[in-house]
Amino acid sequence: MGGALVILFAIPFINTSEIRSSQFRPIFRKFFWLLVVDFLILGWIGQKPVETPFIEVGQIATLFYFIFFIVLIPSLGILEKKLIME
Hints:
mainly alpha, single chain
């Protein structure tokens, strides 16, 4: 739980994109909606009993949450910067 909050506070330092608005970042916009779906899945899975199908779904959704902030945000900024320069 603490790691999820620390990552949210680190977003200004992790973000490598020069464009701050997602309105002009179509690749980021698609991943943002995946993150919204991931939040809904994590909220739904948190209400379920600790049983075998729900444990795996929660682990995969948590993995995507951390990958989104640690890997996707910096790499999308770099990728979009290269696409704009070309």
